[in-house]
Amino acid sequence: MNDPQKHWDEKYQKNPKLNPYSEFLPMVEKYLPSSGDCVDIAGGNGRNALWFAEKNFTTSLIDISGVALDQAREASHSIGVELECIQRDVERNSLPLERKWDIALITFFLDRDLIMQIPKFLNESGIFLFAHPTKKNLERHENPSSRFLLEDSEIFDLAENLDLMKTEYIDEGWRASGKHEAWMVCKKLPE
Ligand SMILES: C[S@@+](CC[C@H](N)C(=O)[O-])C[C@H]1O[C@@H](n2cnc3c(N)ncnc32)[C@H](O)[C@@H]1O
């Protein structure tokens, strides 16, 4: 993909719909602190970030697409919640080095190098939430295509290789949405 920002801007322009939040979130709510700072990485037009903002977490949304962030900002205004929107290419530039959060969320965005860097952007006891479809998803859906999917069972290796993190919850399977997704919740240990 030559220009990912252009690609995603066009997608969000064509389809500005705000999808419902991921079913992963209510399932993992019991692992979350009662308050704190949260970042939704490559969070699109905010379906999941707004779930956190509505629960009074101080929420940042990072995405490469300015169009998606404008849509998220508008949605946050219309429901009356605060949302910090940061336009950034996280594949090229990772996350802002000066920032740390209590919760980091990635759904439906696969950058294995970035996943390995997440612990350094979390406060102590910070929670990393990750949900992504696996190759088994191809049995029922053409998209996302193979190169954007996790290998079957890869989630368990990713969890093992994360520094300074304890796995609180991990599994993969067919979800109510009809997709085959890996879900992972990890907590940052004291350094
Ligand atoms: C499949 S969408 C998932 C959006 C959201 N996480 C969700 O679950 O609805 C992938 C998102 O990644 C964003 N994205 C793609 N490449 C990116 C990059 N290099 N840096 C930051 N965001 C990126 C896109 O703009 C898009 O919003």
How would you characterize the overall build of this protein?
The chain has 191 residues and is an alpha/beta fold. It has a single domain (4-10, 38-188), classed as Vaccinia Virus protein VP39 (Rossmann fold, 3-Layer(aba) Sandwich). 29% of the residues lie in helices and 28% in strands. It has seven helices and seven strands; from the N terminus they run H-H-E-H-E-H-E-H-E-H-E-H-E-E. It has helices at residues 4-14, 24-28, 47-54, 66-79, 90-93, 112-117, 154-161; strands at 37-41, 58-63, 84-87, 101-107, 122-133, 165-174, 180-188. The chain has a seven-stranded mixed β-sheet with strand order 3-2-1-4-5-7-6, sandwiched between helices. The longest helix has 14 residues, at 66-79. Bound molecules: S-adenosylmethionine. S-adenosylmethionine (SAM) binds at residues 4, 8, 42-44, 47-48, 63-65, 68, 89-91, 107-109.
The CATH H-level superfamily is Vaccinia Virus protein VP39
What radius of gyration results from the CA coordinates?
A: 16 Å
Indicate the structural class.
alpha/beta
Number of domains: 1
The sequence of SSEs as H and E is HHEHEHEHEHEHEE
Uncertain runs: none
Strand order of the largest sheet: 3-2-1-4-5-7-6
Q: How large is the count of helical segments?
A: 7
Shape field = globular
Please count the beta strands (DSSP E, at least 2 residues each). Answer: 7
CATH architecture: 3-Layer(aba) Sandwich
Strand content: 25-35%
Average pLDDT reading: 97
CATH class type = Alpha Beta
What is the strand and helix layout of this fold?
Layout: H1 4-14, H2 24-28, E1 37-41, H3 47-54, E2 58-63, H4 66-79, E3 84-87, H5 90-93, E4 101-107, H6 112-117, E5 122-133, H7 154-161, E6 165-174, E7 180-188
Parallel strand pairs: 1-2, 1-4, 2-3, 4-5
Antiparallel strand pairs: 5-7, 6-7
S-adenosylmethionine is lined by residues 4, 8, 42-44, 47-48, 63-65, 68, 89-91, 107-109.
